[in-house]
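Need tokens for this chain, all 211 residues.
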Amino acid sequence: MGENSKTYRRRYKGLFCLTSNSVVFFVILGFIFILIIGCSTVKYRFGDALYDTPEAALQAQRERNHRDVSLINPTENPIGGRALCVLPSRDLIEKKGIRTWGAPKQELINYLVSSAELVLDSHAEALQRRKIFYEVRIVKSGEPESFTMTGYELTIYYVIKAPDQTQWFLKVSPNKNPLPIYFDTSLPLGVPRVTSWLKYIEKSSKEQLGK
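Here are the structure tokens for all 211 residues:
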């Protein structure tokens, strides 16, 4: 659900086809996809399975994300209040979140952007399910770091500077410096590691809000 390039290479194994004569590499949001091209059939890989279409691979990812989010337990110490979660727009992901070598077709770029969106969506949905806050509103923006909306105690947002320069942040007001949000990378991938991210949000939010 979202940590670093090594993590993503293990969990999201990218795009492959069955035979090839050239290779295209993608770096997107800090993780690497590999597409082997020059063959008659392209296969889309998610986890350990291959799919004939991007739609089938994305559906498998949606089902995995839904399962993982459903395993997130609500916190025993909710803060209450309202939080805004700002995710990057599709245009921003494509513009700054992807580095390619070769000349990939737009269909493949669209698949990578959709897959990255699902990763980030699953984080936001996990935040909602954790129930740290009374409400978590999810929005998407081409400038997450500068997006503002009144009526929310704090904002959690994802910044993309380059494919290998991404970070979650938390801020309680425009006048305070944003705080980076981290994962405990010593924990297993999936629910345990995402739960560590949620705990970091809970701890930092309480400190910043004085609760």
